[in-house]
Design goal:
The structure holds two protein chains of two kinds. By secondary structure, chain A is α/β, with parallel strands linked by helices. Chain A is built from ten helices and 24 strands. In chain A, the strands form six sheets. In chain A, strands 1, 2, 3, 4, 5, 6 and 17 form a seven-stranded mixed β-sheet that branches. Chain A folds into three domains: 163 residues, FAD/NAD(P)-binding domain; 126 residues, 3-Layer(bba) Sandwich (FAD/NAD(P)-binding domain); 89 residues, 2-Layer Sandwich (Enolase-like, domain 1), CATH 3.30.390. Chain B is an alpha/beta fold. Chain B has two domains: 125 residues, Alpha-Beta Plaits (2-Layer Sandwich), CATH 3.30.70; 286 residues, Rossmann fold, CATH 3.40.50.970. Chain B is 31% helix and 16% strand. Chain B is built from 16 helices and 16 strands. In chain B, strand 15 and strand 16 form a beta hairpin. The longest helix of chain B is centred in the last third of the chain and has 19 residues. Chain B is globular. Chain B starts with 5 loop residues before the first strand and ends in a 10-residue tail after the last helix. Classes of the chains: A alpha/beta, B alpha/beta. The interface between A and B is large, with 50 and 33 residues. The complex binds flavin-adenine dinucleotide. Flavin-adenine dinucleotide (FAD) binds next to helix 1, helix 2, helix 5 and helix 7 of chain A.
Chain lengths: 422, 439
C-alpha cells in the first residue's frame, strides 16, 4: 500500500462527489477515502456563481464542505489535482502534473464544462464563461468597468447571470437562438411570463436570434453581429450556450461514453471498479427509458448518493429510478418551478391543464399521461417540488383525485404524499 | 448521531382546526411553517420539517445556507447565505421547506429554540414536543457502553435497549445476575466462556436469584465495599418460579435492585404462558382453538404485590418513556443502599406476541397511552404517584389490535380486558396519598 493509493478515489469535489463521500462514510467508516479536485479552492457549487459574480455571495462564504467536514468524515481532499487520464486495467489515474493515484474504486464526478460555439471571430475577442469561481470573480471584476453586457444563451446559467448583471446596474441584452427562454423546463406561455419579467427589468431579450460574428472594438469590448442584421456592443460578453460533460480524461480508457459517461442504475460504468455520477454521467431517463445527461443539481445529489452507496456495498441502496428534468427558479423576487416534462405539447395521450390565474395570480401547467403526473410547471404558486418529484417517480395514479388535483395541486399532492409520512 | 427534539403528531386527536398554524404564524410573523393537511377520508396530517438526520434540503443547497446542527438537531437556515434558488424544496418530501412569496424566501420550522409555539396552541393534544431523547443523550452518551455488540436478541426486542441503558448507568462497579430467560439467552452472560457484559455477571438458578444476590451484597458489605447489585430477571424468574426468593429478599430488606423485564411469558423456551400473561393471550400453552380462546385468567400484577413487601422503592417503567425509566433507575439505585428496590419494566415481544419488529416502541407507547400499562412509583412514605398519568386514554383496541396474540379476540373479550384495565387504574389510585385538609 502506498501513500497514493486510495480504497475510494473520488474525482470532482462538487455536489455529486460530496454526496458520494458522505454516503460511503455512512456504510464504511474506515476505507481510505480521497477526493481529487482540479481546483485550488475548497469545494463550492457552480450554481452559486451568478451570486458571486453579482457580489451577493462572498467567495469565502460559499463553501460546500470545509476542512473540518473532511476531518469528521475521515476523508482527504487533494487540491490542484487535475486528472488527465484513467487507466482502468491498472486501476490508476494520472494527474496533469504527472502524479499518479491508484484506487480500488473510482468515482468520476467531474461535472460539466461550458461549450463555446464556433462563431467567427469569437476566439479573438474577450469573452467570459461561468463554471468556476475564477470565472465568476473575473466577471465580477469586469462588471465594475463594463456598462453594456451581452449574454449568449437563455438557459439557467445565462438567465441567472443576466439577472444579477441587471441588478448590478449593467445594460443587459440576451441573445437566444430558440424562441423561448428556459425551453427545456417551461412551455411557451410560462417562458413568456419569465421573459416579460426580464423585460420589465430592462433586460433586452432577443429571442430566435443567432450570433454570426464577433469583432473587437477597443481592448476588452466587442461588437456582435446577429443573423437578423442587428449589431450589439458589449463591454462584457458572457457565453452561456450550453455545457458538455467533462470527460476528456477518458479518451484512451476504453470506457463507454456517449453524450456523457454511460452508467447503469447503480451508477456503474462499463469498466469494473469505476462509477460516474452527476453532470458527467448519462443515466436512464425516467420517462423515456433512454439514457440522458441530466445536468441539474438535485440529480447530481441523487446520483452521487447512489454511487457512494454502491461503492461501499451499502445494502440499503435503492437503484436509480431514472432522471427527470427538475428545477426551481427564483428571479426578480418571483418563484418558478418545473418538475418532469412540464414543457411538452398536448396530444399523443398527453393531457395538459393550464391555469393562468387571470394574468394576476401566477401560472400553473399540469401535464398528465394515463392519469399520472408527468410534469408540472408553476410560477408564483406555492408548490412542494420535492413531493411532485416523488409523485411522478412513483407513477401515482391520480384517477381517484383527478379533479381535486387539477384544482388544488398543492393540497392534493400533500394529501397523497402524507400516506407515506408515518 | 445525537438524539434530538422532535414534534410528534397524533393524527387521531387532530380535528384540522388550524390553531397550530395560527400560533406559528404569530410567533414567526408571516406564514405558518406547520401546515395541516387533509389526508383524505376525513383524516389529518401535518406538513412540517422533520429535521431529518440526513437532510436532502441541505444536500441540495448550493450556498451553504442550510445546515444540520448536530447538537440541537435542527436544520438551520441562514437568510444571509441563501440566494433564493429554492432547490432545497426539491429535496423535501414532507412539505417542510416551502417558498413563501410574502416573505420572498423559503421558510422552515426551527422548533422555536426549544419551545415550539404550535404545541401548547393545540387544545386537542395532537402535538407533543418530545425532548427526552436529546436530554438523555446529553447525560448518558459519554458513559461507557458495557454491553457487548453482536448479541443475539430477536429483532425488535427492547431488552437490549433497556440493558444498555441500565448498564451504562450502573457502571463497572456492579455485579449483575441474569437468571434463565431471554436475557441470558441473547448472550448477556456469555457464550463459550466469553461474557456479554463488561462487568461481573452471573447466571443463578431461576429460583434463587434474589437469594444469591443478597448473599453477594452482604459479603461485599462485610468487606466494606459499596457495590451495586442488580438482578435482570424475566417475568418467569420473578412472578412465578423466582417469586419465593424474591419475596423473601424483599421482606428482609436486602439492599439490592431487582429489575423484572416482563414479556408476559416464557418466550425463550417456546412462548409458554407465565403468571404474568394477560387474559386472552395466545401462548403455546394457552392455545386458540374451538375450546380454548387463549389464556382464561387475568395475569398476576407483580408490582402491586411488591408494594406489600415493605420495599424501599417500587416502580413500573416502559422503554417508550426512557426518561421516566432513568429517573426511576436513579431513585431505585439510591433506595437499594438502604433497602430492597424493585423495578418492573414492560417488554413487548415481537416474536412471541406476533407484531412487526419495527413496531416495538409504538407498542410500548400504546400500552401506556391505553392504560394497559401504568407508569408509577411507590414508597411507603409518599404512597403511589403516577409519573405519566394518561388523562385521555386511547381505547384498549388501539393497543390490542396491533398484537397478533390477541388476534382472535372478539368485542366481548376486549371489553373484559378493558374492564380489568379500568379496575386496576381505579385500584392503584387508592394507593395515592390523599391531599390532607390543609393542602
Ligand atoms: C451558473 C450556473 C447556474 C446553475 N444553476 C442551476 C440551478 O439553478 N439549478 C440546478 O439544478 N442546477 C444549476 N446548475 C447546474 C449545477 O450546478 C450542476 O448540475 C451541479 O453542480 C452538478 O454537480 P456535479 O458534482 O456533477 O459537477 P460540478 O458541479 O460541475 O463539479 C465537478 C467538479 O469536478 C472538478 N473536475 C472537473 N474535471 C476534473 C478533473 N479532470 N480532475 C479533477 N477535478 C475535476 C471540477 O473542478 C468541479 O469541482 C447551474 C450551473 C451553473 C454553472
Amino acid at each position: 500500500m502506498t501513500d497514493t493509493h486510495a480504497h475510494y478515489l473520488i474525482v470532482g469535489s462538487s455536489h455529486a462527489g460530496r454526496e458520494a463521500l458522505a454516503a460511503i462514510r455512512m456504510a464504511d467508516p474506515k476505507g481510505r477515502l480521497v477526493m481529487l479536485s482540479r481546483e485550488g479552492r475548497m469545494p463550492y457549487s457552480p450554481t452559486i456563481l451568478p451570486y458571486v459574480a453579482s457580489g451577493r455571495s462572498q467567495p469565502d462564504r460559499v463553501g460546500l464542505a470545509d476542512a473540518e467536514w473532511f476531518t469528521e468524515n475521515a476523508a482527504e481532499l487533494v487540491l490542484n489535482a487535475q486528472v488527465v487520464a484513467v487507466d482502468p486495467a491498472a486501476r490508476a489515474v494520472r494527474l496533469a502534473d504527472g502524479r499518479r493515484w491508484t484506487y480500488d474504486k473510482l468515482l468520476l464526478a467531474t461535472g460539466a464544462e461550458p461549450v463555446v460555439p464556433p462563431v467567427k471571430g469569437l476566439d479573438r475577442v474577450r469573452y467570459h464563461v461561468l463554471r468556476t469561481l475564477d470565472d465568476a470573480l473575473s466577471i465580477r471584476e469586469r462588471s465594475t468597468q463594463a456598462r453594456r453586457a451581452v449574454v449568449l444563451g437563455a438557459g439557467l446559467v445565462g438567465m441567472h447571470a443576466a439577472e444579477t448583471m441587471a441588478a448590478a446596474g449593467l445594460d443587459v441584452t440576451m441573445v437566444e437562438m430558440r424562441p423561448h427562454v428556459l425551453a427545456e423546463y417551461f412551455d411557451p406561455k410560462a417562458s413568456a411570463l419569465i421573459r416579460q419579467t426580464f423585460e420589465r427589468h430592462s433586460v433586452r431579450m432577443m429571442m430566435g436570434r443567432r450570433l454570426l460574428w464577433a469583432m473587437e472594438t477597443v481592448p476588452g469590448s466587442c461588437r456582435l453581429g446577429l443573423d437578423d442584421g442587428t449589431e450589439l456592443e458589449a463591454d462584457l460578453l458572457l457565453v452561456a450556450a450550453g455545457v458538455r460533460p467533462a470527460m476528456a480524461m477518458l479518451a484512451d480508457s476504453g470506457i463507454t461514453i456517449d453524450k456523457g459517461i454511460l452508467v447503469d442504475d447503480r451508477m456503474r460504468t462499463a469498466a469494473p471498479g469505476i462509477w460516474a455520477a452527476g453532470d458527467v454521467a448519462q443515466a436512464r431517463g425516467f420517462l423515456t427509458g433512454v439514457p440522458v445527461v441530466n445536468g441539474t443539481l438535485p440529480e447530481a445529489v441523487e446520483q452521487g448518493r447512489i454511487a457512494g452507496m454502491d461503492m461501499a456495498s451499502d445494502p440499503d441502496l435503492i437503484p436509480y429510478g431514472g432522471g427527470i428534468p427538475l428545477n426551481t427558479y427564483g428571479f426578480f423576487g418571483r418563484h418558478a418551478m418545473a418538475v418532469g416534462t412540464a414543457a411538452v405539447p398536448e396530444g399523443d395521450g398527453i393531457e395538459t391543464v393550464t391555469d393562468e390565474g387571470n394574468g394576476q395570480n401566477g401560472y400553473c401547467r399540469i401535464v398528465l399521461k394515463d392519469n399520472r403526473l408527468i410534469g408540472l410547471a408553476a410560477i408564483d404558486r406555492v408548490m412542494d417540488a420535492g413531493i411532485l418529484w416523488r409523485l411522478i417517480l412513483r407513477r401515482t395514479d391520480l384517477s381517484p383525485v383527478r379533479q381535486q388535483f387539477l384544482s388544488h395541486p398543492l393540497e392534493t399532492a400533500r394529501a397523497l404524499m402524507s400516506r407515506g409520512w408515518r | 448521531m445525537p438524539s434530538q427534539d422532535t414534534i410528534r403528531f397524533i393524527p387521531e386527536r387532530c380535528d384540522g382546526c388550524g390553531d397550530c398554524m395560527t400560533a406559528c404564524a404569530k410567533a414567526k410573523g408571516g406564514a405558518s411553517r406547520i401546515s395541516i393537511v387533509g389526508s383524505g377520508g376525513g383524516g389529518w396530517d401535518i406538513a412540517l420539517c422533520r429535521q431529518c438526520g440526513d437532510p436532502k434540503c441541505v444536500a441540495n443547497c448550493p450556498a451553504g445556507a442550510l445546515d444540520k446542527h448536530y447538537g440541537s438537531g435542527i436544520v438551520g437556515w441562514s437568510q444571509d447565505l441563501c440566494v433564493d434558488c429554492h432547490l432545497c424544496t426539491i429535496g423535501c418530501a414532507y412539505g417542510g421547506i416551502v417558498f413563501e412569496s410574502a416573505a420572498g424566501h423559503v421558510q422552515k420550522c426551527d422548533l422555536c429554540d426549544g419551545t415550539p409555539a404550535c404545541v401548547p396552541a393545540c387544545g386537542k393534544g395532537a402535538l407533543e414536543h418530545l425532548s427526552a431523547a436529546a436530554r438523555l443523550h446529553e447525560t448518558h452518551a459519554d458513559k461507557e457502553d458495557l454491553f457487548v455488540p453482536g448479541l443475539s436478541a430477536c429483532q425488535g426486542c427492547n431488552s437490549e435497549l433497556l440493558i444498555r441503558h441500565t448498564m451504562r448507568r450502573i457502571g463497572r462497579n456492579s455485579v449483575v445476575a441474569a437468571p434463565p430467560g431471554c436475557i441470558p439467552g441473547m448472550g448477556t452472560v456469555g457464550y463459550n466462556g466469553q461474557t456479554g457484559a463488561k462487568m461481573p455477571i452471573f447466571h443463578p438458578l431461576l429460583t434463587n436469584t434474589a437469594a444469591m444476590l443478597a448473599g453477594v451484597k452482604r459479603q461485599y458489605e462485610r468487606r466494606g465495599k459499596d457495590i451495586t447489585v442488580v438482578a435482570l430477571a424475566g417475568d418467569g424468574g420473578a412472578v412465578d418460579v423466582g417469586f419465593q426468593s424474591l419475596s423473601g429478599a424483599a421482606e428482609r430488606g436486602e439492599r439490592i435492585l431487582f429489575i423484572c423485564v416482563d414479556n408476559e411469558g416464557y418466550m425463550n423456551t417456546g412462548m409458554q404462558a407465565s403468571g404474568s400473561t394477560p387474559f386472552g393471550s395466545w401462548t403455546s400453552t394457552t392455545p386458540v382453538g374451538t375450546v380454548e380462546r387463549g389464556k382464561s385468567t387475568d395475569g398476576k400484577y407483580l408490582p402491586q404485590l411488591m408494594m406489600g413487601h415493605g420495599c424501599a422503592y417500587v416502580a413500573t417503567a416502559s422503554t417508550a418513556f426512557l426518561d421516566d425509566y432513568h429517573t426511576k433507575l436513579e431513585k431505585a439505585l439510591a433506595a437499594s443502599r438502604t433497602g430492597f428496590a424493585y423495578l418492573h419494566v414492560h417488554a413487548p415481544c415481537p416474536t412471541g406476541w406476533r407484531f412487526p419488529a419495527a413496531m416495538t416502541t409504538e407498542v410500548c407507547r400504546r400500552q401506556v397511552e391505553s392504560n394497559f400499562v401504568t407508569l408509577w412509583e411507590f414508597t411507603a412514605e409518599d404512597g403511589l404517584r403516577f409519573t405519566h398519568a394518561v388523562d385521555r386514554p386511547r381505547p384498549l383496541s388501539d393497543y390490542v389490535g396491533m398484537i397478533g396474540k390477541y388476534k382472535h379476540l372478539g368485542n366481548a373479550e376486549i371489553e373484559r380486558i378493558q374492564a380489568s384495565v379500568n379496575r386496576r387504574v381505579a385500584f392503584l389510585k387508592g394507593f395515592c396519598r390523599q391531599p390532607s385538609a390543609a393542602e
